[in-house]
Amino acid sequence: MRILLVEDDSLLGDGIRAGLTLASYAVDWVRDGEMALRALADHSYDACVLDLGLPKKDGISVLRELRQRNIRTPVIVLTARDTRQDKIAGLDSGADHYLTKPFDLDELEAHIRAVVRRSGDLAQPLLVHRGVTLDPASKQASIDGEPIALSGREYALLLDFMRHPGHLRSRAQLEASLYAWGEEVESNALEVYIHHLRKKLGADFIQTVRGLGYRLRGEEK
Ligand code: CA
Predict the structure, then answer these.
(1) Are residues 85 and 172 both part of a single domain?
(2) What is the pLDDT of residue 82?
(3) How far is the CA of 78 from the centre of ligand 1 (A)?
(4) Which residues surround ligand 1, an ion (CB under 5 A)?
(5) Domain total for the chain?
(6) Which residue among 14, 52, 55, 191 is buried most deeply as judged by most CB within 10 Å?
(7) Are residues 9 and 111 located together in one domain of the fold?
(8) pLDDT in tens, 44-90
(9) Per residue in 102-147, pLDDT tens?
(10) Cβ distance 31 to 8 under 8 Å?
């Protein structure tokens, strides 16, 4: 899953990026409102974590322009301000959630899961496909009730597939959900992760669609 983090405070931004990266998100970090709008227009993000007090363009203006352009990326607003007016302005401008600083990372992650679930129309917190269950809250996977150990990248890849059951996922889409800007993408890494997932979940759980990408095998009719 790919997240855009917009935060001009170096220490806080660094902490959030490190925490979310550890939690297997691919995190792109920008520090002003103009960069944020450009990134959101050019790339597809599963969620945006947006500070309100920003150089060049403040967070509320970013939100308004984003929604005017009909970009529907879920947005979680972060702010030190906690007055009622600020919250109302944020929500009226198209924020999905509001988080007041200081907050802890677990709380931010729970908000991300909630907005992503809502944007994907997934009522269920658990993702289930062909006997495989994935719990984004605990990052635990199981097959027919038996827990399976996954590395961070394997988890991130499986999460991408299970959020798009039956959909073809191209190499570019899968890599975008695994790697942030500046992270080196080893040329055959994706094949290696898919190979590992097939060993753990069954050889035909993920199908190769020649020349196009991969998809989860459909449910049995
Ligand atoms: Ca700020």
Answers:
(1) no
(2) 64
(3) 9
(4) 8, 51, 53
(5) 2
(6) 52
(7) yes
(8) 999 999 999 999 999 999 999 999 999 989 999 988 766 777 777 77
(9) 889 999 999 999 998 887 766 678 899 999 999 998 889 999 989 9
(10) yes
